[in-house]
Design a protein that fits this description.
about 190 residues; alpha/beta; about 30% helix; binds inosine 5'-triphosphate
Length: about 190
């Protein structure tokens, strides 16, 4: 089984969550910076999978070590799936929740369904593989909780927002947690472990 992966990301929270999930499984996750790749590839794809592959390939070409990239975002039903792949660019950092709440102020309770989506691309010398997973919930009416990042304070999973959960609670039910589980199963099967 693989023991070390590079993660192609400039998002410290994604890196932290990937480490929380993969290190108990015996996989060390190096940041792209630790692996010597300072790059910010142009994410010009129109799907999570396209963008995940763009990021994974860009870093793999520099580091030549097994690399993963996460492309993720929030898809809100009442907004036709927006912000989706544009979630990171929807509003200046720290203002995304307020903007979303404002955009949804007239949407009734039964139409506030949303899903976080995550695609992870994995690349090594002879493999390019993607896995995807969702986390379904609803958009609340106010920001709640101090944990997590991005849209977590407005994303309700049951009674709690993801920002009200501990890291362990979030990772158990999150899109990223589920996608990384799938990646782990893929790597395990591939190695015949
Ligand atoms: P990298 O491309 O460098 O990995 P990024 O933040 O730009 O970092 P994305 O393009 O995949 O990454 O954008 C994902 C955005 O979706 C992220 O910035 C958050 O706003 C949101 N997002 C993704 N996962 C989330 C999570 O678990 N909780 C809250 N918001 C999340």
């Amino acid at each position: 089984m693989i023991k070390k992966l590079v993660m192609a990301t400039n998002n410290a929270n994604k890196l932290r969550e990937a480490r929380e999930i993969l290190s108990p499984l015996g996989i060390e996750v190096l940041s792209q910076r630790e692996a010597g790749a300072e790059c910010e590839p142009d994410e010009n794809g129109t799907t999570f999978a396209e963008n995940a592959v763009i990021k994974a390939k860009a870093v793999y070409e520099i580091v030549n070590l097994p690399t993963i990239a996460d492309d993720s975002g929030l898809c809100v039903d009442a907004l036709g799936g927006r912000p989706g792949v544009y979630s990171a660019r929807y509003a200046p950092k720290g203002e995304e929740c307020a903007k979303l709440l404002d955009e949804m102020k007239d949407i009734p309770d039964d139409k506030r369904q949303a899903a976080f989506s995550c695609t992870i691309a994995y690349i090594d010398e002879n493999t390019l593989h993607t896995v995807s997973a969702d986390c379904k919930g609803k958009i609340g009416y106010e920001e709640k909780g101090e944990n997590g990042f991005g849209y977590d304070p407005v994303f309700l999973y049951g009674e709690k927002t993801l920002a009200e959960m501990t890291a362990e609670e979030k990772n158990k039910i999150s899109h990223r947690g589920a996608a990384l589980e799938k990646l782990y199963s893929f790597l395990k099967e591939r190695n015949g472990d």
